[in-house]
Amino acid sequence: MAPRYSITALRPPESALGSDRVFRYLVESVRDYAIFLLDPKGHVATWNPGAERIKQYTAGEIIGKHFSIFYPTADRDNGKPEMELTVATQTGRFEDEGWRLRKDGTRFWANVIIIRVNDEDGNQIGFGKITRDLTDRRLAEQRLRLLIESVEDYAIYSLDTNGNITSWNLGAERIKGYTANEIIGRHFSQFYTREDVAAGLPEHALEIASREGHYEREGWRVRKDGSKFWSNVVVTAIRDDEGSLVGFSKVTRDITDRKNLIDQLNQHARELELQIAEREQTNLELEAFSYSVSHDLRAPLRAIGGFSDALKEDYAEKLDQTGIGYVNEIIAAAGRMNQLVQDLLDYSRLGRAALGLQTVNVSQAVAKSLQQLGEDPASIAIEIDTRYAVLAHEATLVQVISNLISNAIKFHEKNAEPQVRIWGAVQPGGNTMRLSVRDNGIGIAAQHHERIFQVFERLHDRESFPGTGIGLAIVKRAIHRMDGAYGLESAVGQGSTFWIELPLYGRK
Amino acid sequence: MVESQPGTILLIEDDAADASLLIRAFKKSGVTNPIRHLKDGEDALAYFEGIGELGDRGKNPLPILILLDLKLPRMSGLELLQWMRPRKHLRRIPLVILTGERDPTFREAAYDLGANSYLIKSPKQEDVLRLVELIQQYWIGLNEPAPIVLESRGPWFGSVHL
Amino acid sequence: MISTEPLILLVEDDPADARLIQRAFEKAALGARVTRIPNGDDAVAYLAGHEPFDNRTSYPLPAVILLDIKLPRRSGFEVLSWLRSRRDGLQRIPVVMLTSSRHNVDVNRAYDLGANSYLTKPDTNEQLTKMLSTFDQYWMAYNEHPSLGVS
Questions:
Q1: CA–CA distance, A169 with A158 (Å, rounded to integer)
Q2: Residues of B contacting chain A (CB within 8 angstroms)
Q3: A151-254 CATH, one of 3.40.640.10, 3.40.50.80, 3.30.450.20, 3.40.50.1370
Q4: What average pLDDT does the structure give for chain B?
Q5: What percentage of chain B reaches a pLDDT higher than 90?
Q6: Looking at chain B from residue 86 to 145, which residues have their Cβ under 8 Å from any Cβ of chain C?
Q7: Residue C72 C-alpha, separation from nearest chain B C-alpha, in angstroms
Q8: pLDDT value at residue C102
Q9: Among A265, A382, A409, A471, which residue carries the largest CB count within 10 Å?
């Protein structure tokens, strides 16, 4: 093989020589590479700043010495330097990486190229040597290898182009159960389940990796003891500088725990969905139930009330006072039942329906309540800043206020005129507004304060005060649904103040 | 957010005299609902489409009752009806034709296009008052309105409901 | 239409409700003529002019229909849907729902199917009389009836 380099004979530079001088300058300015010449016997003939920097000898100290001085004792004893020169002589070139010695005896990892140098006639006149200090790179590689070898959580190993295992690490041993001795050289399909092997999955993985550079999949793998684990596997194709495939690297992670967790979560999610579907079904049934209640219970009520009324009107002259009294009782009873059905429906609807909250102007809501009750606003003292608005469901709020006002008016002393006062106040902190309804009625003993908010709880018989016993239960549930608060201040004979609090929305 | 208010009555009438007579009659009969008056079909389109100032739902909410004249400039009442028909959120608003047109073909066409009712305008003052009272008693007082829905175009808009 | 007086067709299955409604019309003393049909199939037969309603003198087409939702054999919505799908003019007859349901679902559906108006049955006779009086005045005296010839 013809040498690739040809350097002219070793002679001191002449005064006006072109190319010689340029080459000299080139070599002498290089500091990262040691570039120097050896005579045919291997003695150092030239030196450069790079060589001085790397090997620490000055030109004066090293020129004339044999280049084997750069080699570790073991290599010298083995005749490595001579061997390298022989190869360079015969083939024209020798390249190697190995330890070299500096002047102070410290070792460095070197990349070394030795080339045969010929004169114009083809006679060998010596060798050229280019040495590079790769200590840093080697240290990095070493560190990486140590790292890989010591990683326990990941199996990191390599395969040749056929899929046989060429390296192993601690993680691989831990995860798959094989020691390096047991497994190196064997085929990696060893780790796949029988079904996967039959389906050609290992070959498929290598094929994809070599085609696309990369293959990642999750799947079952088998340990040495036969047990299975859920793995995350990444196969990467390794190519040389020319792009030819030289093997594969494989990183496997045991994610069985994670898979179990995910499976559990999915299970939970499915159960939750089932519960939700069931609850919706129940809600639908309740909805249908109250739908029928509202139709089917009310139709007969209409008939009872309607025909009694017709009886009274059309046959008034055929009925005596008692008769008319009976008819009135029937009409009243039908009316009460109607009210009860309505209240119950309202109460149950509050339990299910999502309340869409809006900003509701408070003084307007109060006005609407009064309108619904048919009460003259003038008869009630109202002190509410008309700009206040709260976050509430309007229709529900109006109903709540109606119930409170209706109670305030209803429960008065026998001969006293009901006096009702309504006022609104922003609470300290500025976040909520309290609407209070005060009456001069009969008052409520402390031990009853909680009871009265329950469904069907009444403190008086129907003769004293009419009512379904649901009004305050509706207040309680409604305020709850709107995220508000309610309360009562009252004592027997001292009237009552019922209050509700809702989030303030700002002045509107 | 909108303050709780009685629903808007939308009057689409190009004749200024007729319009002011009607509005006056509404006031006189004690109607508290706000009344919006548009003078032609294209304004109505903008109103319903939510375009521009007419489409500002804060100032111009969707009405609970529409009173529509047939003879309008640029776009006739029947054309407007036809345009409204496929739009579900508009179909549910009671629309009463209020017109001087006595030709029955218009009446038949109006019903076919989905008008809820067809009333003939009377020239007489007291008739107008009586008519308006009845409109109010029936359509505002008795008729059950469809719950207000979110308008179908675009994202959230401000008026939310049941 | 061949008739002496415009007809209100009341489609109502509950006999008590029907009776009270008819009584309310009488009380309103507007001279309203009301024919009651107790189920959805009969309502369709009446409007289509099928037996036994094939005599248009005895069974004239109505000027307005009062329609309940809950009906045996065919629901009010089905009757409405059938009516609005006609192309012979019948589809123009004004239909006013008269039902106990106030549910949004029903109200929306009624309007979507083409009901002209929706009324909820009130609780007392007095309210019913007032309602039907206003109803009668509006639909029978003021509203222009469509002619039901071929469209």
A1: 10
A2: 1-4, 160-162
A3: 3.30.450.20
A4: 84
A5: 51
A6: 88, 91-92, 94, 104, 107-108, 111-112, 114, 116-120, 131, 134, 137-139, 141-145
A7: 24
A8: 81
A9: A471
Strand-pairing partners, residue C120, are C99
* pLDDT tens readout for residues A191-210: 999 999 999 999 999 999 99
**Most B-contacting residue of A349, A357, A358 (CB-CB within 10 A), to test interface:** A358
Pick the more confident residue, A453 or B5: A453
Q: Return the half-sphere exposure (C-beta side, CA atoms, 13 A cut-off) of residue A450.
A: 1
Q: What is the DSSP letter of C87?
A: -
Taking the CA of residue B63 and the nearest CA in chain C, the distance in Å comes to 15
Q: What is the CATH number of domain A14-133?
A: 3.30.450.20
Nearest partner of A196 among A164, A233, A148, judged by Cα: A233
Phi first, then psi: what are they for A281, rounded to 5°? -60, -45
**B-chain residues near A389 (CB < 8 A):** 1, 3
Please report, for chain A, the start and end positions of each structural domain, with discontinuous segments joined by +: 14-133, 151-254, 261-351, 354-503
Nearest C-alpha neighbor of B98 from the set C64, C92, C144:
C144
Over the stretch B65-81, which tens digit does the pLDDT of each residue have? 999 999 898 888 999 99
ipTM reported for the complex, 2 dp: 0.91
CA distance C6 to A426: 60
pLDDT tens-digit map of C72-83: 888 999 999 999
CATH code, A354-503: 3.30.565.10
Mapped onto helix, strand or coil, the DSSP state of residue C15 is: helix
Identical fold between A14-133 and A151-254: yes
pLDDT of A259 above 90: no
